[in-house]
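Repro:
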Amino acid sequence: MRTRMLIMLLTLVVMFAGATVLTPTWRAPSWRAPSRRVPNNGTYTNVRGLHGVGTVSWSVLTSGIDTNLRGVSAAEFVDKDGTEHITVWACGSNGVILLSNDGGKTWKRLHVPGGDALDFRSIVALGLKKAFVMSSGNGDKSRIYNTVDGGENWKLEFTDSRKAFFLDALACDAECYALSDPIDGKFVIVATHDYEDWKELPGDGMPAALPGEGAFAASGTSLAVDDYSGMYFGTGGGRVARVFHSADKGKTWSAVETPIVSGSASSGIFSISSKSAVNVVGGDYQDPKRPYRVAAYSQDQGKTWQLAAQQPGGYRSAVVAIDGATLAAFGPSGEDVSDDFGVHWKHTDSLDLNAAFVLDDRNGWAVGAQGTIARMINRTQYLIRNNSPKDDSVLASTSSIK
């Protein structure tokens, strides 16, 4: 009898333990889910499968505008009633700037006075009504504008009349920086420390540019800044594709060669991300389907570089971090996702997209040719919150532009 009771007791314990494993306690995620950042000591944890490359895709919200959208950014805000909202900004050729105050459901077209012919390549959302936008072009066609009233008015913050001046990228964290192609043999960084007064940083600590070397403005993301490891930018067009790194906010720089394809004016690094690992993507935009030497990663803050063991499907103009180990890359032949800090990439979509911005692991947008705007679908996060599978139509819907 004692033996039988002991067996029954053990059975109940096992059943209870099994039920505990199969029905975990669910907690509502915070508004911005924390990222699983890479340890600063360079040790990488294998987190493949936390998201999974099959869980992230992109769904078109709207398209059909006469513009090639190149920049997108978003910010979150709380209204007077305490309700949280997301504002999304996008920009592109033909002077197009778009704003959505409802997370991308509806869009309003904005105009910069005298800017209808400008090619806007980068935009940074600073809040509900505040943003910087950057245009690219030779000399004074490269400009930085600022708005504080939701795009009703724009103030010209910076431009330069030198013919070699050509802005390629704009990036902000605690401070804002913009990158220009070399002038007098050195790349140029302009910066603002108060979001108003833009100035060119001294170039004493900047290494000399190689013959033909420049940066690419295809997605406005060849420059990356963060509070952890400083500032990075990628180059191309020369003998080798290099990554420049500054750990002191642009006072001094180091330049390191990467294995990204190079040697022609159309090849090199087009985008860099330093939010998780340090990752670069690029290739040759004249040969967009060539899937060789287009993605590389660094495990030591840009000191050494390795090619991705499994490459994206061709030339890629942008790379963004989604959450910790998960990244996405974008180009004319489609999109790819990596869930191991950029070591392996898998093709996921075939949209023609130029750039993307991920606010958190639930909210991201991408933009591309013919005014295309797409929203990120992260099925892992959706299923965690809802505890049941849903059709993609629930996760995304079409939007309109006014």
